[in-house]
């Protein structure tokens, strides 16, 4: 089921036409996650029970005492913890240690002995796609927009994992990094969702229902690419069988949004745990590429050509050859390059560092004012990123939650898993009415033929009454069942039964 959902996700986003799938290492060097901000920032506030030593997330303990404890700073949480004294979930005592920031990454060592270097299991798949930017840029012939996507494992050393598949230390995620030129009008056609009313919870405002087009026009959604990705996310959730009446998009509050993010919406799904964030769609500005550029000194940029070459007047300094030449001799060339890079406001004498690292003092008589024109045909810029990030385990769990139905049949409780055909782990079940008189052989043959079709999972079941077998298939969400009976042996027809309607039709075996 997970493979099917992963594949459905990849196929769905490939529809953009300009994305490529990557598979990056899960073990990541320290420097990468230091540059991304995870080493410094990626933490939860933890407190320990003085009585039983159980560690708890401070914000979780205070959920009953504050509308959004997740957004509080450490000092605010500390005061609230001391004022409210919530009971320990393990032992009921109220003796809490001072709150500490606990980094959520699993650390490890890459390599052995003295050459071993610190590293982490990746907390998200995104960083590998940012550090691959230059390879992606070449792959897409240096033309934006384009995207990279990845499905795989992420790891977070959660302080107190709970709610089963909702919060795991090792989890499955799917992320897309879509690189755009902030100055080019994005080609974001929203007409495909003209008739869909989206349930939106904008930051600080009442929930509304409107189309994506209207939400963009009214400034509720701040970026058209974010809106389009919300539409694509909506279609994906519908395809895998989520009940779309139980999906809403909630905008991050400004204090909950990362400081660099320009807009961020979560797709929340309602299930037995209430409303749970399952997808985040964030406009991250140029933050990620810029951070890695700063940390490595390597350019992570795209080039944008101007419509017309631009000439700019540079008003600055150059050297006076007559005096600087004899003064600096072999270094004169380097001095000239350095002086021409100084701003007009520089006062002399000035001490400057040359390219070779040497320091020289430049006197007023070595320089003269210099005005020149600079002609440029284009410029290098840091692309912006829009990132949809999906929690695959949370989606699987809600697919199961929404598909689970209890019905009544002949006065008895009857359970059906109404899974969408795209994600049902078994596509079809084949039953002989009785395992005798050749019905079993005919059914086994059909089963074998189905198993030979790529991507089809068939199940043969000859055990128990036929009603019991239908019930077992319904319980695991098999969309269709085929039954071989006496008539099959005479005219080659079988019964095809649809799970959700219970409808049965006779069809020739060869037209299945
Ligand atoms: Zn305790």
Q: Roughly what fraction of the amino acids lie in strands? A: 25-35%
Helical segment tally? 16
The CATH topology of the largest domain is what? BirA Bifunctional Protein, domain 2
Outline, from the CA principal axes? elongated
- Looking across the biggest beta sheet, what order are the strands in? 1-8-9-19-14-13-12-10-11
Secondary structural class = alpha+beta
Instruction: Extract low-pLDDT stretches.
Output: none
Q: Spell out which ligands are present.
A: zinc ion
What is the domain total for the residues? Answer: 4
How much helix, percentage-wise, in residues? 25-40%
The separation of the N and C termini measures 24 Å
- Computed over alpha carbons, the radius of gyration is 31 Å
Average of pLDDT: 93
The CATH architecture of the largest domain comes to 2-Layer Sandwich
Q: What is the CATH top level name of the largest domain?
A: Alpha Beta
CATH superfamily of the largest domain: Bira Bifunctional Protein, Domain 2
What does this molecule look like?
The chain is an alpha+beta fold. The radius of gyration is 31 Å and the shape is elongated. It starts with a helix and ends with a strand. The protein contains 16 helices and 26 strands. A 9-stranded mixed beta sheet has the order 1-8-9-19-14-13-12-10-11, with helices on both faces. A 5-stranded mixed beta sheet has the order 23-22-24-25-26, with helices on both faces. The chain folds into 4 domains: 1-40 and 122-301 and 382-418, Bira Bifunctional Protein, Domain 2 (BirA Bifunctional Protein, domain 2, 2-Layer Sandwich), CATH 3.30.930; 43-103, Herpes Virus-1 (2-Layer Sandwich); 302-377, no CATH class; 426-511, Rossmann fold, CATH 3.40.50. Zinc ion (ZN) is lined by residues 49, 51-52, 54, 88, 90-91, 93.
């Amino acid at each position: 089921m997970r493979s099917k959902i992963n594949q459905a996700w990849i196929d769905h986003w490939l529809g953009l036409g300009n994305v490529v799938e990557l598979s990056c290492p899960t073990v990541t060097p320290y420097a990468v996650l230091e540059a991304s901000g995870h080493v410094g920032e990626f933490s939860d506030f933890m407190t320990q029970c003085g009585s039983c030593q159980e560690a708890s997330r401070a914000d979780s303990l205070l959920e009953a005492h504050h509308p959004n404890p997740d957004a509080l700073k450490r000092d605010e949480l500390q005061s609230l913890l001391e004022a409210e004294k919530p009971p320990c979930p393990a032992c009921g005592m109220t003796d809490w240690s001072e709150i500490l920031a606990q980094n959520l990454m699993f650390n490890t060592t890459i390599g052995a002995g003295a050459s071993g270097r610190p590293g982490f299991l990746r907390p998200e798949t995104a960083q590998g796609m940012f550090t691959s930017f230059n390879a992606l840029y070449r792959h897409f012939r240096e033309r934006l927009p384009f995207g990279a996507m990845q499905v795989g494992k992420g790891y977070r050393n959660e302080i107190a994992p709970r709610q089963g598949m909702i919060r795991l230390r090792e989890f499955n995620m799917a992320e897309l990094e879509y690189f755009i030129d902030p100055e080019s009008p994005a080609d974001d056609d929203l007409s495909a969702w003209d008739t869909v009313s989206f349930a939106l919870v904008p930051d600080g405002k009442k929930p509304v229902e409107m189309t994506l087009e209207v939400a963009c026009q009214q400034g509720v959604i701040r970026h058209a690419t974010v809106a389009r990705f919300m539409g694509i996310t909506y279609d994906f959730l519908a395809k895998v069988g989520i009940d779309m009446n139980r999906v809403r998009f909630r905008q991050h509050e400004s204090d909950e949004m990362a400081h660099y993010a320009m807009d961020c919406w979560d797709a929340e799904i309602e299930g037995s745990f209430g409303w749970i964030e399952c997808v985040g769609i964030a406009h991250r500005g140029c933050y990620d590429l810029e951070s890695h550029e700063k940390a490595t000194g390597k350019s992570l940029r795209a080039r944008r050509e101007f419509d017309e070459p631009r000439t700019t007047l540079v008003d600055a300094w150059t050297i006076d050859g007559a005096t600087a030449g004899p003064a600096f001799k072999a270094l004169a060339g380097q001095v000239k390059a350095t002086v021409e890079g100084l701003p007009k406001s520089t006062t002399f004498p000035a001490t400057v560092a040359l390219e070779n690292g040497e320091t020289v003092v430049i006197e007023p008589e070595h320089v003269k004012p210099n005005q020149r024109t600079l002609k440029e045909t284009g410029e290098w810029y840091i692309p912006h990123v829009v990132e949809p990030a999906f929690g695959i385990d949370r989606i699987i769990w809600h697919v199961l939650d929404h598909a689970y139905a209890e019905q009544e049949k002949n006065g008895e409780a009857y359970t059906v898993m109404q899974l969408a055909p795209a994600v049902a782990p078994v596509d079809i079940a084949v039953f002989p009415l009785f395992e005798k008189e050749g019905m079993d052989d005919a059914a086994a043959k059909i089963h074998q033929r189905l198993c030979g079709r790529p991507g089809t999972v068939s199940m043969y079941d000859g055990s128990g009454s036929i009603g019991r077998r239908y019930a077992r298939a319904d319980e695991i969400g098999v969309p269709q069942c085929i039954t071989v009976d006496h008539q099959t042996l005479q005219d080659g027809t079988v019964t095809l039964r649809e799970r959700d309607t219970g409808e049965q039709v006779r069809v020739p075996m060869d037209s299945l």
